[in-house]
């Protein structure tokens, strides 16, 4: 999971999915281009989504010919449970 979060493009993809969940590859590419100025190929974005999916941060659902991507924050929550932040007074 740390490898998946190490890349700024993958973090941008997660930000976009957190902003609006359930997007297709086409929608993610469009949002990354218009909102963030990232002009990557669909293949490159697809590869990044594969890394995020392998890390458990993105889940997909096929409906007809379309594949929808969803952000799953559960792995991040597990980290915060394992290493809680303690505040010093």
UniProtKB/TrEMBL annotation:
Q: What highest taxon heads this organism's lineage?
A: Bacteria
CDD domains attached to this UniProt entry: HTH_ARSR (cd00090)
User: Does the keyword section mention Transcription?
Assistant: yes
The record's annotation in Gene3D superfamilies points to: Winged helix-like DNA-binding domain superfamily/Winged helix DNA-binding domain
Outline the extent of the HTH arsR-type domain: 1-89
**Which GO molecular function annotation, any one, does this entry have?**
DNA-binding transcription factor activity
What Pfam families does the database record attribute to this sequence?
Answer: HTH_20
Write down the InterPro entries for this protein, in alphabetical order. Answer: ArsR-like_HTH, HTH_ArsR_DNA-bd_dom, HTH_MetalResp_TranReg, WH-like_DNA-bd_sf, WH_DNA-bd_sf
| Keyword field | DNA-binding, Transcription, Transcription regulation
Name the UniProt record assigns to this protein: Putative ArsR family transcriptional regulator
Q: From what organism does this protein derive?
A: Gordonia namibiensis NBRC 108229
